[in-house]
Fold these 4 entries.
Entry 1:
Amino acid sequence: MSQYYSSLNGQLIDTTKHSGDLLQDRGLAYGHGLFESILLAKGELPLLVRHLVRLCGDAQKLGISIQPALIESYLNQFVEYLKSEAVISGVVKIVVTAGVGGRGYQSPQLIEPSVICSYSTLPEPIAVHRRDGIAVRYCYHRLPHQPALAGIKHLNRLDQVLARREWDCADYQDGLMFSDADQLIESISANVFFKNAAGDWLTPCLKVAGVSGVMRSVLLEEIFPACQIPVQVQVIDIDEVAQCQQLFVCNSIRGLMAINSVYNFKNRLVKILPVGQQTLMLGEKLVEKYPHYQ
Amino acid sequence: MSQYYSSLNGQLIDTTKHSGDLLQDRGLAYGHGLFESILLAKGELPLLVRHLVRLCGDAQKLGISIQPALIESYLNQFVEYLKSEAVISGVVKIVVTAGVGGRGYQSPQLIEPSVICSYSTLPEPIAVHRRDGIAVRYCYHRLPHQPALAGIKHLNRLDQVLARREWDCADYQDGLMFSDADQLIESISANVFFKNAAGDWLTPCLKVAGVSGVMRSVLLEEIFPACQIPVQVQVIDIDEVAQCQQLFVCNSIRGLMAINSVYNFKNRLVKILPVGQQTLMLGEKLVEKYPHYQ
């Protein structure tokens, strides 16, 4: 064992103690880890299986070997504890990192992942936004082309942090993010679906950038088919956004949220969109199948 | 205040306690932070001023407001403590994160950065590598084009982690990293300089990717001029690497290390390089100016 010492904000830390460990964690050092934000509603985690499947699949891509049963038991214990404190709705976030150790960027041969569960209250007036829709803004900050990391909900999130710093008012509830090649990828914290000028429903291809969201997969695999509305995954140019007929964002916390107005990079209004009939139908079908998103 | 609960590896954590805080830190959640790896030699941090200047400059770009004097005092206290434990050489790493808080990607208005100092022993047989040079390998994993983050030593380091996972033997001591456009950017943990076929010394331009290293700036601003060897920063094509006459990597821990052999993506030997006269001269000048790199 090599020597190790550390301090946090000027105070020496006993790293043999619980959570002092986090100081040496590869999640903090390099963002070598993943997370899931899971809706807690009526004491349940309605999309738990999908979250676990994504987490375990993506962990492999980052060289993190996790035991799904262990992760699930930590989550279930945590939710039981919350319920014992009469906490039954909000957001349960799980962070799984590569764990503690390694020399520089190299992971050690034997390493145990760190699993952090945390709870916080719902982030926004979701009911109002679900009813009235939200305003979004184009972000200047571009998402880089990185096929090796595209789709993964990893801990390297400076792109989202910097994009979210572009405004500090309450005028916009989310921002649309584009690639260097001026293609729509996602919003800062959700995936995007829209009905183009020709009447086709589309959602951006995420092969070179973006996060492949759990709610996006629910919509693609269950909700669009149940509504008998065709939808395609494809590369989408920025110009198509300004011409769309309907537009919504979705994630596993907010469900489906219509976009009622779009502002460009210069904060100029590009488009006002009444909440469309098909957007309403998709939202209702989601609630019918998953009443927790009511 | 919203409610907050958390667990680490199945154990509930009292987040009011010291370092329980790290569970909610933006450094862990998003990689919203920076780090410096600083050489500790004979109880001193020889390049401290350059490290602090870079850290403070880059912090601004990430919206992290830090007080240089406070950071310096934490570092000095930490080094004094190490000396009191008879620890006088190794690596002192400082991590500065945006701190604890915020709703999702949005930083709160008021937030105190977290400052972590840690010590570890030197990572490798540096003396042998400095004398004999090292072997490097081309990495498959490409660095993304991201001008907004290029140059910054931030905590989003999955690219380096994934590149370092490409080999697990002791045959290579570092890997050369390229952009999507097949341009040489840096090595996994250092900057690169080389003498091309025409006899010109070059180092890659870091405007779209890469970390602008402290030792790189020492070489560009002090060591090359002191040796009266011209050097240029420019865009460098992958093909130029295979034709170079001399090649070395540098960082603030290892100093300057000649590369004696280069392997390609398929682990095939591309080039054997005897340690060149000018590489030796640059290394000697570095030690003359900064004897801690002896």
Entry 2:
Amino acid sequence: MNPESFSFLYERERKKVEKILVEAFKDRKPDSLYKPVKYILSTGGKRLRPLLVIFSTKAVGGNFSVVYNASVAVELLHNFTLVHDDIMDNADKRRGMLTLHKKYDDSTAILAGDGLLSVAYEYLLKDCNGKTKEVISAFTKGLIEVCEGQSLDKDFETTDNVTIDKYKLMIMKKTAAMFEMCCTVGALLGGGSPKEIKAVSLFGKNIGIAFQIQDDLLDISGDEKKFGKKVGGDLIEGKKTFLFIKALSKAKGNDKKKLIKVIKNNGIKPQKVNMYKHLYEKLGVIENAKAEIKFYTNRALRSLKTLKKEDDKEIFSWLANSLIKRIK
Amino acid sequence: MNPESFSFLYERERKKVEKILVEAFKDRKPDSLYKPVKYILSTGGKRLRPLLVIFSTKAVGGNFSVVYNASVAVELLHNFTLVHDDIMDNADKRRGMLTLHKKYDDSTAILAGDGLLSVAYEYLLKDCNGKTKEVISAFTKGLIEVCEGQSLDKDFETTDNVTIDKYKLMIMKKTAAMFEMCCTVGALLGGGSPKEIKAVSLFGKNIGIAFQIQDDLLDISGDEKKFGKKVGGDLIEGKKTFLFIKALSKAKGNDKKKLIKVIKNNGIKPQKVNMYKHLYEKLGVIENAKAEIKFYTNRALRSLKTLKKEDDKEIFSWLANSLIKRIK
């Protein structure tokens, strides 16, 4: 298959997921709970996680149609995390639109998040068939890790000496565990062998790590309009990203002082973003991030060796490459 | 069995639940997530919902030991709702101690609630055995209803014309659905027949309605020290409880004006609680509430006709009576 065919496939399946997402909340009441839920789902997004479920099912020889509800479930779980995280981070914008708690209020957003998670389990159950225990276990494990990861991320706000190791543990839990779970659920429901499930799950985990470092990178190198968030937002908020931690570990003298200032002041002024971007370039941490992304992407692809069909590997390769090249 | 034996049984089983609740979070990290979770669990509570699971298992001929993890799961779910509800209600105290978001902050409490819910599913899965789909479905249905009920309750804050019917729908979802779920899960795991499961679930639903009206009643007639919350708190906050809605529907002239004032001012001053208590007495709504509690308690007990063993009915009768006589 050529890249265009993969894009076509992604888009076709994404639209199906989109349709079920809309149907899932069409007739639910009360509006005070579900209108905000519909709002956050209408803000779009790549729907990457559901597609990971779908492709993982395909990769082990299963049929797309057996995992649409499960793929909707992971998207709902993902949106639950976004809604609650945005309250905690006091974020104004998400996907270029107002965050839920800014459009409504904190209480509405807390409850909408809870509702999203609840309905996620309802949808997951629809596709579980004979594998309810394994699938719900994998999903719940992913959920617990996401909560732990978010807690670690919040800890970083008040920790001065965050190391790359601590950072990796955090993103492993906050981001990669969910990618891994999507692939596990897809492979389980697709009827994969234990070996295949393991291979596909490892793909998810490693691509998840690459994805998060890429996200950190996009924050400083992305195009504001396409990215949907303010460029340099992580620096403005003083977030300990891969780039920042790496820069701090490499910098000396005056450069180091500048970086310590970011920690001390809990962030920087927007007009200073460019100065720090140049510092990142000078210290080579943008290149470091790119190398790291490549490393985890390759590791992800290597884990797929056990898959039999070339087509299945190809779809994941295309996905991995699309993620590296993504602009938002 | 005599009432003392039932109290002994309740206490013995409650302690076992308590022990598992502590063990469940002993070795989890990070502390930033699980210390707040342990705090809220350490504030105690009646552990009524886990005991409902345990007694329901017993009532259909099952063994206590097969549902300890499931009973811990419902208590975790219950605490998840308390933690999130307390943020939304901006409540200061719970069980006589600081609420989680007051002891820490909103973000910590949001995440602790999420963590409680996640681990609830983990614990539920431990006991599911061959009934994972039914049990997880019942639990998830209960969870969704709790979210919807909380949303309806929040709607009441800005609705002037709340009727007793709307109130009952709200408590059916916010409180009774969870009681029903506890009984369903217990009866399912205890190996009950469909008829038995139905009977025990109906007991839970109706006792849940009685429990919530009793809660509204305790708010005005309870002893502050034993109740753990400020007496008249619902009036102070302008909550539309059974008593308030009933009073508003019965009052005329000056009495009605006084009640409308509560709505207009979003509550009353603490020193006016006694005046409103006398008004409730004058209008007979305290007696109305007591009659309603009796009605639903009797309905709950009647649903148990299909249970074979007298002992099993007795334990539920004792529980129902304890709930009516409770002071907190």
Entry 3:
Amino acid sequence: MTSSTISTSKLRMGMIGGGPGAFIGAVHRTAACLDGEIQLVCGAFSSDPEKSREMGKQLGLSEDRVYGSYKEMIEQEQKSKGMDFVAIVTPNHVHYEPAVLALRAGFDVVLDKPLCFSLNEAHELSQIINETGRTLCLTHTYTGYPMVKQARQMIARNDLGLIRKVYVEYPQGWLSHEDVNSKQAKWRLDPKQSGPSGCLGDIGVHAFNLAEYITGLQVTHVCADLRSVVESRQLDDDASVLLRFNNGASGVLMASQICTGEENNLKIRVYGENGSIEWQHGDCNTLAVRWFDSPTEIYRTGTQYLSQSAIHNTRVPAGHPEGYIEAFANIYRNFKRTICAKTNNEKNPSEQWEDFPSIKEGVRGMAFIETCLANSKNNTEKWTELNE
Amino acid sequence: MTSSTISTSKLRMGMIGGGPGAFIGAVHRTAACLDGEIQLVCGAFSSDPEKSREMGKQLGLSEDRVYGSYKEMIEQEQKSKGMDFVAIVTPNHVHYEPAVLALRAGFDVVLDKPLCFSLNEAHELSQIINETGRTLCLTHTYTGYPMVKQARQMIARNDLGLIRKVYVEYPQGWLSHEDVNSKQAKWRLDPKQSGPSGCLGDIGVHAFNLAEYITGLQVTHVCADLRSVVESRQLDDDASVLLRFNNGASGVLMASQICTGEENNLKIRVYGENGSIEWQHGDCNTLAVRWFDSPTEIYRTGTQYLSQSAIHNTRVPAGHPEGYIEAFANIYRNFKRTICAKTNNEKNPSEQWEDFPSIKEGVRGMAFIETCLANSKNNTEKWTELNE
Amino acid sequence: MTSSTISTSKLRMGMIGGGPGAFIGAVHRTAACLDGEIQLVCGAFSSDPEKSREMGKQLGLSEDRVYGSYKEMIEQEQKSKGMDFVAIVTPNHVHYEPAVLALRAGFDVVLDKPLCFSLNEAHELSQIINETGRTLCLTHTYTGYPMVKQARQMIARNDLGLIRKVYVEYPQGWLSHEDVNSKQAKWRLDPKQSGPSGCLGDIGVHAFNLAEYITGLQVTHVCADLRSVVESRQLDDDASVLLRFNNGASGVLMASQICTGEENNLKIRVYGENGSIEWQHGDCNTLAVRWFDSPTEIYRTGTQYLSQSAIHNTRVPAGHPEGYIEAFANIYRNFKRTICAKTNNEKNPSEQWEDFPSIKEGVRGMAFIETCLANSKNNTEKWTELNE
Amino acid sequence: MTSSTISTSKLRMGMIGGGPGAFIGAVHRTAACLDGEIQLVCGAFSSDPEKSREMGKQLGLSEDRVYGSYKEMIEQEQKSKGMDFVAIVTPNHVHYEPAVLALRAGFDVVLDKPLCFSLNEAHELSQIINETGRTLCLTHTYTGYPMVKQARQMIARNDLGLIRKVYVEYPQGWLSHEDVNSKQAKWRLDPKQSGPSGCLGDIGVHAFNLAEYITGLQVTHVCADLRSVVESRQLDDDASVLLRFNNGASGVLMASQICTGEENNLKIRVYGENGSIEWQHGDCNTLAVRWFDSPTEIYRTGTQYLSQSAIHNTRVPAGHPEGYIEAFANIYRNFKRTICAKTNNEKNPSEQWEDFPSIKEGVRGMAFIETCLANSKNNTEKWTELNE
């Protein structure tokens, strides 16, 4: 076995963050490369140049493409034209600045959620995107699942009738004890790295995004109960939010990181006049569809009867489980194909490819977080309007 | 096959309501008699004497024990000493008056929920019970399930540690369409028969009761969103309520009758510092117990490792499903054995027998309904204290 | 509370067996009386007259209707005309003789499975039934479940197309240890009381019956592997049987009492050309129906879209679980209504009532057991024909 | 976006088969490359040179590394030393010859199951492997799942006690109709391409392998019922096999492709004296462990309490579903790390890496298929010994 050289025409990705011990960085790398349409070519994997180099070596990158800071990487790669887009997978406090730099340097950006620290920053990012004409993809992974797309499409074509009620919940248990020492936990519990919200920014915003994505509706008002349950914790680790939607529907959003024994079971139920859907992450290849007076139907990934959108985002036949990495890869693949079409001034051969979370979803997420934080502290205002 | 005569020493039940076409009346009769410790001896099954007679005949009662009104029944049976207690299974507007009459006439009472129309009436009933020394059993059926009792006992002995979060939900879909013609639906949607609340009084109060029963905690504050979703409906058919408990825990209660496709899937999750439990009506013989860092445990009805309370309320071995009627029968059996012990001035041979919902739970339920109704209309008070 | 007297026109049942500590006797009593159409009037509950009396007292029977032997009971009740039918719930070795006596004395009979000790005895019982014109009901409980009836009806009307494959399994774990001391275990492990087969006679015959009932087919050939797994055990405690059906379908039947950790999860899957069904006892109110190229459908007890046969055997609305006792009660209720119609020379108002297991199913069960026993010992004959 | 050049030190894979429209070829490519430790460098993707080129282009390979025949590829790559191993993903009739050529040319081989056409060929392959010292990896994918490895390890350390009973089943429905036109179906139904067995060779052998892998036992005798259910079919499409294991345990193996409505739900249950396990492909991240008298335990992928073997084969935390591609990638990763260690004369840093199916499993699989085919035709021999 020796080193080798291959020639490809893949989209070239640089990565910011994702150093040794990071969870989501590795997921981004695997997901981005899953379909063989993207390759990692450079990275600033850590603010510690030594660690960055170590990771670069481990990943088989040539040394001159591994950087000690994201500024350096963006500058160099802009000059060399060696990179097509940047994936930013750092803790939240290092989202905004590298995103701005990358966009202004002419790079498209993939960014982990939440978009940034505040609605203000979100608006600024939005403006820069408008100015630069660049594309931003926000990795709200859960919208990448085929059965989530199936649900969205069924609701869009009015299978369920008028939507009246949305229950979305995201219980986790991993932060239910005080002495959490993992790297993952530490930055999430630190307001300087995580931002003004803990649980809501980390997972609540996924639930919010999922609800708006599946229903095609927008939340207009919230009534929120955010709490710091574990002693000494500075940020919310538990959230319950009543919702109102723009079509008059109501909803409940629950997100919590102190639900001892729960893994990562994001679940959504949407009730319409004629039928309802239920999807949960723990059984991600299944969509239950219930009707007023006929048997419940179980839709399954990989079958022939699904919508185009679901089929497009599936790789293997029915009965071969797909999971988190594949859903993540769907986000990347759609992003990649979209910007390739854009770059080549081609019409996108399939509108399905344009289906990935963007700056719009990022702005709405930040608005949701800020509105919930404000409402939760206010005991004389039950409902607060959600304005972007 | 001929008529026959048998001699028994069972507790003798009279029934008010439960005429032709009634659902819950038949359930009460079957459940009460399941264990052969209670027998139905008389009834005023309908306010229409003809229908009452028809039902009496169908049930094999002798004609002179079938009455055209509950007043007549209570008077006559008081004289003849032919009845031991009364089961009131009428729509809500015929709860208070017959209960008062029966208690004052010296009869113990089994009453379907909700207790009555208002907290005021509830307090009056409570006072009459104090004065008369009679026993009232309120059929909050779901607390009769063995695995609910298992959960309660595990929490009581602190298996889960401090309780921090309670999610309880009760989605139904049968009232999601406007044109509901069934007898069951009609009275529930009519404020004159149902009382000031629809969904919350019909099923939300079950969910509330279950949460307090399992946790041993009390709700102190509510923030409620009650809605009439189906057009032309006068009462709430959908409710979402944020909760605060007396130990500092928070919670969410959802109850809805417009969740198209849902059957009757009351579900509760309770999260403690060390572990959590999940029980749902659709899989009533199972209790899931989750831990911070060991495998989830599945407790099952009829096994050897359960608590006394669960074992006491089970009839068949593991793997032989028990259901709604058996849970209902547990309420009746415990009530029966308690009042027999009381009547005979015996010490109750098992404290398990005293475990059935009583006037206390009835008062709390009415307080919950009234507090939610008040809070839901008030947009400048987020949290309202729940006072009995 | 005092003794009381009520007059009814219920069918009057005498019981043989079901003394203190018996499991199935209590189930028979509860199930028989559940719908208020049958009442227990007399019994020979034990071969020990003292124990029989004790049980009679406990059940509130008058002393003169409690007997020290079934012979005495049958004689006396024949004279007094005080009993309409007999339920025989003894261990297997006390099935044949009391059944013969009762039938010859003019009583209809309910008998627990397996019918008797041998195919010979089964034929004799069959002949006596023909001669006497009496009705025998064999309590193959599992055919009493509404969703089993739904499956049968769907297959009967050819929803699934030609049936090709049947998998039926019945794993239990309660006899997986050697030192089983319960009364239930002891007689089952003793050839003198249990008959020539252990597991196959106790539960395998249920699985066999379920397969023939649901499919409407008959097994024509078996290839059996019966084993005594636990040391020192004289009878089979584990059985695997390959099947051939009269329409050319094949099948597999598994029954075992050494499947540690299993409860009582009888499960059947039937595969037809166009679709398939799956039902399992652990989730008895659900029937999964799968199709070649459309979503799996989940049928549920208590819904509006079921077949008449399922609706007829259900008591409560969807979402209110029914279980083992209710299924057992369905057998009794159908038996009762059938013999009442017969007694009164009425046409059965509903053919659904005639749907209960009879002597026919008993004969087939005995044939199945004997054929499997013979085949299992024979290593030079792979397939043995099943002849009644 | 332009072409780019990267330098890596990955293991270099050549592929035989996997042209346009192939299912398993794409899975092999994605799985092999998932962890960034293997790269595809060349291929003979089809016996039609045009199609091979088309696929090579699509995959971004340089033209001179895409071949019109596997012979050519093996010769050329042997000369150029540009390839480290070969993955053979063709229909069964093109397994043996390319494998022999590749091994003799000094290449390690990854081969899709079943190994080849006959036990004879299997023995020859085995001998060549012995002679050449090369490594062969057979992609019995299902042994790559973390929870399968967990089960194996629990049984190996005697958690369940003596194993007594194994039920393994593999129902599929996709071949239940006659007119199957897909490329996937066609070759599988053609004896010239598929070999002497259809269903048993395609999926039954997976079930067999899984049973031996999880239990650590070996099947010694089979009693098989193979059938061609769909009219005009030449090969078996349905199989039921009774098993005997070398420790005295018995078992049942079912595999069928005519189970209408079933997806790909391989499932195994293993019963020991003290406990039992259940794993199924449809819920691949879960392992149910049952005990004689304590609650069932649910083990889950990604948790802290698992065995080293399970942890080693997992990529993401609990609650982030992994699936088929990840399991497949585990096979490849373990194979890759093993042969790298071998190549570098290093001790394998983790014995976990040596855990992938090899020629041994291939020989046993072929022996199983042949023995079942022989037994199934023989009506005077119930049990046939399985000899390698």
Entry 4:
Amino acid sequence: MNIKHDSRPIGIFDSGVGGLTVLKELIRTFPNEHFIYLGDTARVPYGAKSARTVERYTIQVADFLIRHNVKGLIAACNTASALGLGALRAHCDTPVLGVIQPGCQQAMNRIRSHNDQVGVIGTTSTIASGAYPQTLATFEPRLKVRSLACPLFVPLVDEGWIDHPATRLIVEENLAPFIENPVDVLILGCTHYPVLKPVIAKIIGSKTKLIDSAEAVADSLAVLLSQVILPAPSDTRQKVDFYVTDVADRFKHLAGRFLDGYRVDNVEMVDL
Amino acid sequence: MNIKHDSRPIGIFDSGVGGLTVLKELIRTFPNEHFIYLGDTARVPYGAKSARTVERYTIQVADFLIRHNVKGLIAACNTASALGLGALRAHCDTPVLGVIQPGCQQAMNRIRSHNDQVGVIGTTSTIASGAYPQTLATFEPRLKVRSLACPLFVPLVDEGWIDHPATRLIVEENLAPFIENPVDVLILGCTHYPVLKPVIAKIIGSKTKLIDSAEAVADSLAVLLSQVILPAPSDTRQKVDFYVTDVADRFKHLAGRFLDGYRVDNVEMVDL
């Protein structure tokens, strides 16, 4: 059997550090791939910005990765996936994977019937885009989806207020509609939110299943590597290159929190 | 007596909406001036970004205002004032007023002797720059200055969590060093913070005087208009033009909160 391979890197991008929760899962799952991660830390966050601006930034960021000869692109940012993916796919021929489709797929695997209630939380722009309910409707039009913007979760994670009484108060107040009237499945529709998973799980209760799109993206990438793009040779050693658009120090510091101790040595700063 | 006038506008800029606390004071104080406000809402916030990036953005933003033929520039953002003002002054001939010098001047007016303790709170980048202690030292080298970064205050204000128990918890924890060991004067070194003034005042206690740089900037502009640039003719009606780098809707919504009901009608979006 003649198995073909492709040693070119896979590009993964985010507005900043949130996409590292996705990268962590990819590092764990694909020991032979070469990843290039680009965090747009000069213009972070995307979560309250318009479709027009997010589209423009998404294409600039993707173009940088395309110039690095990537075989595939992963938008590891829900806001970029919700607002920028259409424009990006029209702009380039490189296969692009977002985080919304995989997250919705995983939510669908966890519901028992269309009578189950699905909740989605995300940034203001992701929720306003309606991308989650629209994507879920392509799987099951009868599904009832309730969406909530939780704009303070990202700064809380970025500043390390992970398990603080103030964080619990904010999570409680933001998720009140899902506490009073529980959903069966709750999609964490922002790559920062998995860091708050323990707090959210405690507040929301054990009856609601939490969907973390990072795991779902790894599953989707496995499918992509078997069907659309070719995997790296199995004797290749995994490699990750990091790029940021603002100075690297703060990124390095935060990356430790997101990658659970994975060593982030060489982070290069680039202008887009 | 032959009084000369200059009808050209005064440019005022900020990373987003924070500078509106300064503009509010200018609107109140200068009934004949024409102001052009530019909020860099596509790249907001500046507060955790590097000097290199903030310098670059500050110059781009100022260049836009200079093309609008302004007679003076006001950096109504502490982070831009702390990190970008040196580069901006080297870049252009237009007189530039920052918020740090006026805030320090006002703090100096409020202390009784060099034994008084001065506190400064601001964004991560403003505090890391050391701009406040350095400027205060030019007034009084013996002064003891204690600085604290409060990075969550900006998102709390932007999301309207002004008087919430979670906000009080975060303010309490951030300002703990100034509660345990009080300062005589506390400089609110970020243009967002005046919105939290009532909460901060309640937590910090009545013995500490709070310095809001917005009022100080209005005083400094009055000096500038009498000594460096010329005021508008006294029969001119005040006018404010608003520009933003991302779509205007969110800005309009937030502007109401900052300007206490001043009508923000025409907001134009521009690419820098």
